[in-house]
């Protein structure tokens, strides 16, 4: 369901009453957004900040109008909550409907440890002191979801990069296509698919989520953020009948094969091991070799670790391998494997560990991830929150904070804040003014309805990639990495 973006209505109902709850003399409220803690089980050094610009571009393009105010007045009256119509009329008359706030944020694509201020906002018109916290619902939602998906995707790329360093001679750029987004059908909405799919593309270039491509073009000026290939599904293979399985496969090669081309074929409609050994590696072997491209065999059921291990072994027997400089086997270039069923960070790690034990390079495989990528995250994955930290009353700034005795983890920061890095590269959230303005990484990105900074998608990708290269390895030695905690249950797809 497409809903018109009225910024007045992008709010929790209870916030409409907050204007009357602040102390007399309040003129400014300053709040910040942070990821308070890592509950993901990913052991990442930080969260990948992403997605704020998508919201700010929508906000800049949708100033408050009289029609928006009328709509909100009618809705809230029927809904049973107060509505500060005078305040919104003031914003319309004084500011042309553009929201009088300043938003500062760390550059998107930065990887920042939990516990630091990533966004800070304050009203610029004293009469709109109530507006800062009013924006929490939309602003926090705009940041936590795409940043969490980008972090999950980044963490998987970190796993893949470790395996690449240990087992592969291929260019590092090959990692950009090692995790493919199959999550569109499992996403809760088209907007979820667009934002989450776009967040994945910060780290990779493989996707089947078309909404993500549109979002990257619309919000980050990226003409084409991701790529895909022709691929079969069970309906197209089984429509030939079990007796026609080999004919269905041959048709895929005829229709989509060719020099330099890549085609993926799901091969477990009946018996994936028979398909690899007797069909792809027997009856159709010469056709696979003669097409001049690459066949990607896709298992889609069973235990991912065991199935991938056997499929690789059968493919190696049928098509042969070469040994790279690191002592790992690489399948003939005409054949590769993609595993898209049951994939999450834990199963990826387990599959890679088994491949290393069997002396297969990471070159042989790519992964597809669906609901575990776009849907099995929530705000608590990194304990995202937006909190007021300072208020100006009667011309004097004072700190605002919470410190519940029942949960120290929910304590909040106090005062106006800055985000800095020291000579060692460590991050510090400090009181505003305690570091030079030029060193404050919370830079103005939005003020009084106007976007001040426009990140291009390539810039965001470059920051995330640089942080990946700088990240310290999580294990030592030449053996397979130790298992990581499970982020989410295996995809049943």
Descriptive notes:
By secondary structure, this protein is of the alpha/beta class. It has two domains: 13-147 and 382-470, nicotinate phosphoribosyltransferase (Alpha-Beta Barrel), CATH 3.20.140.10; 170-374, Aldolase class I (TIM Barrel). The protein is built from 15 helices and 19 strands. The strands form five sheets. A seven-stranded antiparallel beta sheet has the order 15-14-1-5-3-18-19. A hairpin with a 5-residue loop joins β16 (417-421) and β17. It is elongated. It starts with 25 loop residues before the first strand and ends in a 23-residue tail after the last helix.
Assigned CATH superfamily of the largest domain: nicotinate phosphoribosyltransferase
Rg result: 26 Å
Distance between the termini: 25 Å
Q: Give the class-level CATH name of the largest domain.
A: Alpha Beta
Please tell me the CATH architecture of the largest domain by its name: Alpha-Beta Barrel
Question: Could you please say which CATH topology of the largest domain applies here?
Answer: nicotinate phosphoribosyltransferase
Count of helix runs: 15
Strand segment count: 19
Domain Nicotinamide phosphoribosyltransferase N-terminal: 8-103
EC number: 2.4.2.12
Protein name: Nicotinamide phosphoribosyltransferase
Domain Nicotinate/nicotinamide phosphoribosyltransferase: 177-424
């Amino acid at each position: 369901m497409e809903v018109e973006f009225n910024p007045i209505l992008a709010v929790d109902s209870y916030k409409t009453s907050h204007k009357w709850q602040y102390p007399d003399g309040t003129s400014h409220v300053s709040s910040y957004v942070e990821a308070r803690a890592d509950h993901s089980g990913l052991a990442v050094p930080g969260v990948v900040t992403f997605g704020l610009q998508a919201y700010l571009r929508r906000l800049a393009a949708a100033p408050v109008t009289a029609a928006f105010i009328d709509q909100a007045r009618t809705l809230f009256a029927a809904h049973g909550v107060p509505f500060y119509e005078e305040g919104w009329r003031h914003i319309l008359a004084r500011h042309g409907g553009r929201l009088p706030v300043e938003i500062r944020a760390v550059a998107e694509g930065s990887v920042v440890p939990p516990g630091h201020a990533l966004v800070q906002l304050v009203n610029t018109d004293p009469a709109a002191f109530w507006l800062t916290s009013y924006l929490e619902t939309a602003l926090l939602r705009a940041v936590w979801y795409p940043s969490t998906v980008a972090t999950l995707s980044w963490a998987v790329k970190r796993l893949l990069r470790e395996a690449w360093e240990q087992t592969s001679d291929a260019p590092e750029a090959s990692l950009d296509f090692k995790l493919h987004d199959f999550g569109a059908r499992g996403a809760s909405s088209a907007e979820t698919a667009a934002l989450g799919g776009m967040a994945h593309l910060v780290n990779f270039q493989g996707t089947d989520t078309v909404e993500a491509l549109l979002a990257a073009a619309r919000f980050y000026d990226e003409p084409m953020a991701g790529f895909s290939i022709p691929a079969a599904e069970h309906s197209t293979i089984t429509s030939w009948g079990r007796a026609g399985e080999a004919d269905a496969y041959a048709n895929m090669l005829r229709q989509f094969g060719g020099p330099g081309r890549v085609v993926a074929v799901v091969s477990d409609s009946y018996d994936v091991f028979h398909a690899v050994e007797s069909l792809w590696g027997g009856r159709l072997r010469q056709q696979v070799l003669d097409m001049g491209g690459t066949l990607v065999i896709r298992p889609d059921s069973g235990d991912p670790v065991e199935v991938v291990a056997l499929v690789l072994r059968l493919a190696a027997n049928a098509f042969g391998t070469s040994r790279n400089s690191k002592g790992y086997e690489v399948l003939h270039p005409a054949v590769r494997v993609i595993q898209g069923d049951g994939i999450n960070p834990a199963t990826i790690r387990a599959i890679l560990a088994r491949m290393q034990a069997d002396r297969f390079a990471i070159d042989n495989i790519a992964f597809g991830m669906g609901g575990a990528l776009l849907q099995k995250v929530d705000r608590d994955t990194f304990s995202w929150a937006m909190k007021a930290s300072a208020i100006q009353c009667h011309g004097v700034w004072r700190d605002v904070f919470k410190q519940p005795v029942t949960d120290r983890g929910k304590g909040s920061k106090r005062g106006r804040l800055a985000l800095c890095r020291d000579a060692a590269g460590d991050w510090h959230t400090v009181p505003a003014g305690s570091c030079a303005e030029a060193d404050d990484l919370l830079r103005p990105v939005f003020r009084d309805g106007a976007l001040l900074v426009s990140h291009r998608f390539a810039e965001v990708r470059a920051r995330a990639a640089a942080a990946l290269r700088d990240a310290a390895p999580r294990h030592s030695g030449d053996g397979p990495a130790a298992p990581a905690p499970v982020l989410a249950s295996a995809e049943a797809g």
